[in-house]
Specification:
single chain, alpha+beta, four-stranded mixed beta sheet, 5 helices, 8 strands, 36% helix, elongated
Length: 207
């Protein structure tokens, strides 16, 4: 299907910002950039494609994570320099594991005060690790162990969780505090990988 892009104003790099909105909740999920080719692929496939400014290549949202975005409509603004794309979101939209990329309160008119940047229920180190895992899942290179686990699939991840669990038990039976710390760290990491595999965030925004 061909579309008329004559009224769109791409920037000097041939890009146009695209705001992604959940059609069911009306929540703004993310902002990314499209060029002519990614826009054409989005229309052709019915799922979002973008242009990565950092990697300088096309990318299909959710290709590796499964967090795909089925496109329902595409409109442009009055100046023709911004797209609004309404989608059915599968899983979470943000590579950090948040439902929306816009999950960091800065200010609220009700209180007139700055709000905390993050409000996770886990210690910072674990929430940060989970975000790194999600990033490696999408953007990890060929030498990334995290990327390797996701590419290998569920059975491999479950096997590693089982192995690390057994090694943690042995370390405890050996009454070695150092070994318990090392093995427990490995176990926590692989458990977070498993949560990410199922698109489950290890914290909640409720309460």
């Amino acid at each position: 299907m061909k579309i008329d892009v004559s009224k769109l104003k791409f920037d000097e790099k041939g890009l146009i910002p695209a705001i992604i909105q959940d059609v069911k909740t009306d929540a703004v999920l993310m902002l990314a950039y499209m060029n002519g080719e990614s826009l054409a692929r989005t229309v052709e496939t019915g799922y979002t494609w973008f242009w990565s400014r950092s990697r300088q290549k096309l990318w299909n949202k959710g290709e590796t994570s499964g967090n795909v975005q089925k496109v329902l409509s595409i409109v442009y603004d009055c100046d023709g320099d911004t797209l609004l794309i309404k989608v059915e979101q599968t899983g979470v939209a943000c590579h950090t594991g948040n439902y929306s990329c816009f999950s960091y309160p800065l200010w609220n008119s009700a209180s007139g005060e700055s709000l905390p940047v993050a409000d996770n229920k886990l210690p910072t180190v674990l929430s940060d690790l989970y975000k790194v895992i999600q990033d490696k899942r999408e953007n990890g290179g060929p030498k990334s162990y995290t990327k390797y686990l996701f590419m290998s699939g569920q059975d491999k991840i479950l096997k590693k969780v089982g192995e690390e669990c057994a090694e943690t038990i042995i370390a405890s039976k050996n009454n070695s505090q150092d070994e318990v710390v090392y093995e427990m760290s490995d176990l926590w990491y692989h458990c977070l990988v498993l949560l990410a595999y199922h698109n489950i965030t290890p914290w909640t925004d409720a309460g």
